[in-house]
Amino acid sequence: MSSREASFLIIEKAGNTHSFEGIEMKSLQNKVSQCHICFVIYNFVLGFYHKLNLAIMIKVVKVRIYPTKQQKVSLAKAFGTTRWVWNHFLALTNQTYKETGKGIAKYDMIKQLPKLKKQEETEWLSETYSQSLQSVCLNLSRAFVNFFEKRAKYPRFKSRPLVTS
Predict the structure, then answer these.
(1) What is the C-alpha to C-alpha distance for residues 162 and 153, in angstroms, rounded to an integer?
(2) Which of 88, 102, 130, 152 is most buried, judging by how many CB atoms fall within 10 Å of its CB?
(3) Are residues 79 and 117 in the same domain?
(4) Are 137 and 85 within one domain?
(5) Domain tally for the chain?
(6) What is the arithmetic mean of pLDDT over 155-162?
(7) Are 121 and 86 found together in one domain?
């Protein structure tokens, strides 16, 4: 890919997905203007190939997305589920630390996720992708590492936002 080529992923409002790899900027602008774009992720590579160990610049363009009602519901469920998992494991870590003097390792948190999904009162956790829940555990673990290395404050419980945009 040359310095004037880019990789694009375009998702139209209709849900059709188009991927353009190594396309010239001018021809891409023509294709983009023909689509009703809901979301564009784009990587613009400046310079030479990565194999040459030279600097590569990634440029990101932010655009607004317009999810359907069903997508809004599933996003709200995912956000709520990840917030609940964060708060659950933060409380569990605090309790474990008070009892034993040690916290919970990130992979121990991840191992507990399938057990939580099988319980009747938390079976709704299975509606969210497992990778999202696992990343919450990794993020919480990273938050504790940052706290103990004095790069951040102690992790806080997450509350439901008053306004969702």
Answers:
(1) 23
(2) 88
(3) yes
(4) yes
(5) 2
(6) 90
(7) yes
Determine the Cα–Cα distance for residues 160 and 139; give it in Å rounded to an integer.
18
94 and 47 in one domain? no
Q: What residues make up the domain containing 12? A: 5-52
Give the number of other Cβ atoms within 10 Å of residue 164's Cβ.
9
CA distances from 155 to 27, 56, 63, 123, 165 (A): 47, 34, 30, 26, 25
Task: Output the CA–CA distances (angstroms, integers) from residue 74 to 69, 71, 128, 157, in the order listed.
Answer: 9, 5, 8, 22
Split at pLDDT 50, 70, 90, the class of 64 is: confident
* Beta carbons of 4 and 25 less than 8 angstroms apart: yes
**With contact defined as beta carbons under 8 Å apart, do 85 and 136 qualify?**
yes
20 and 75 housed in the same domain: no
**pTM (2 decimals)?**
0.63
84 vs 63 pLDDT, higher one: 84
* Contact present, 96 and 144 (Cβ < 8 Å): no
Nearby residues of 124 by Cβ (< 8 Å), 6 or more positions away: 77, 81
